[in-house]
Amino acid sequence: MASTATPVPDTHQETSPETRETKAPVYLVIVWNDPVNLMQYVTHVFQRVFGWDKQTAEKHMLEVHTQGRSTVARDSQEKAELYVHQLQAYSLHATMEKE
Q1: Which of 14, 44, 95, 98 measures 20 to 30 Å from 65, CA to CA?
Q2: What tens digit of pLDDT does each residue of 42-52 get?
Q3: Distance, CA of 70 to CA of 63 (rounded, Å)
């Protein structure tokens, strides 16, 4: 007797190099140290722009102060541009770069 069962389609999908390349690129938002802004002010700005608690904001502020820079966001190009503009509006030196 012949089997009448229908074959189950293969649902396993492999990620090809083409698929990985078509994903939107990720951008890093970097805040650089400057001799103008006070540490307390930078902490305040991080809390305002990113909605961070004081401890997280201070961690990034200290990274900027001691290492000269801190990566504060990793996001799409549009969101990274928005963060850079917001930080610059508060007179912080911020840039973005492709990851």
Answers
A1: 98
A2: 999 999 999 99
A3: 6
Domain-embedded: residue 75: yes
**Within a domain: 26:** no
Q: Considering the entire predicted model, what is its pTM?
A: 0.76
In a domain, 16, yes or no: no
Report the distance separating Cα 63 and Cα 68, nearest Å: 7
Q: In the predicted model, what is the mean pLDDT of residues 26-47? A: 97
Between CA 56 and CA 49 the distance in angstroms is 13
